[in-house]
Amino acid sequence: MRKSRGSPRHLRRSTSPTFWPILRKEYVWTVKPRPGPHPIDKSIPLGIILRDLLRYTITMRETRKILAERKIMVDGRIVTDYKFPIGLMDVLYIIPEERYFRIVPHPVKGIGIIEITGEESTYKPARIKRKVTVKGGNIQLTFHDGRNFLIRVKNPFNPVEAHYKTYDTIKLAIPKQEILEHIPFKEGNVAVVIDGANVGFIGKIVSIEQVFKKPRALVELESEGGEKVRTILDYVFVIGREKPIITLPSGD
After folding, report:
1. Beta-strand runs (E) in the chain
2. How much of the chain exceeds pLDDT 70, in percent?
3. Cα–Cα distances in angstroms (integers) from residue 206 to residues 132, 164, 194, 252, in the given order
4. Considering the entire predicted model, what is its pTM?
5. Cβ contact 227:211 at 8 Å
6. pLDDT single digits (tens) 44-65
7. Considering all CA atoms of the chain, what is the largest pairwise distance in Å, rounded to the nearest integer?
8. CB count in 10 Å sphere of residue 102
9. pLDDT digits (tens, 9 = 90+) for 122-145
10. Which residues pair with 231 in a beta bridge?
């Protein structure tokens, strides 16, 4: 995905991420996401999602009015900022219409949005980005969306709770932030490619070859149809054991 450059306060349409659903030459400027849970090159401002993706409004003025009326939730919490960055696996809830959407990898667009059921909206997969030991021998996990989760350790000398590893996925209840399931990054589990030339590809992990550092390890995935791709580990997001725990686009 293309890195966005320019002013720290403004963003030109011509330099915005290519997966944003906006016309590049209609106007000079577009909405720049505020600093938040996702980086600018892997997120879409909430205002653009409502106006350009879901087409609930025509202008950004209308969009800001809807948000001010507290009718939109992200991951189970009311959001009123039209610049709020929405990224992978986030759940969007349109309260008046009782419709739920999730931001997912898309094989054509790079990042897309898909409608989901109310039941599926109660959780999100969160990839472990960082794992550190903190005071008292407890373990703090940092997920791909910026949130932290503290694992209480009963015995620091025998931390049986420390089985979580970076790049594993947690099925996280929202907004309660409770761990519902732990899905390790290992051969046989189902994953989706979230970046690179094969973005949106879904398949089982066939092999993991550690060459240099862990993020650059080579991962081979195989789809149900027998197609195989290879990419780096950093681009692979585990989403289930036997089958995906979330709804994903078909690639049409």
Report:
1. 11-12, 29-30, 43-45, 72-74, 77-78, 85-87, 91-94, 99-106, 110-116, 123-133, 139-143, 148-151, 169-173, 179-183, 190-193, 202-209, 218-222, 228-232, 236-240
2. 91
3. 29, 21, 17, 25
4. 0.87
5. no
6. 999 999 988 999 999 999 999 9
7. 61
8. 21
9. 999 999 999 999 988 899 999 999
10. 219
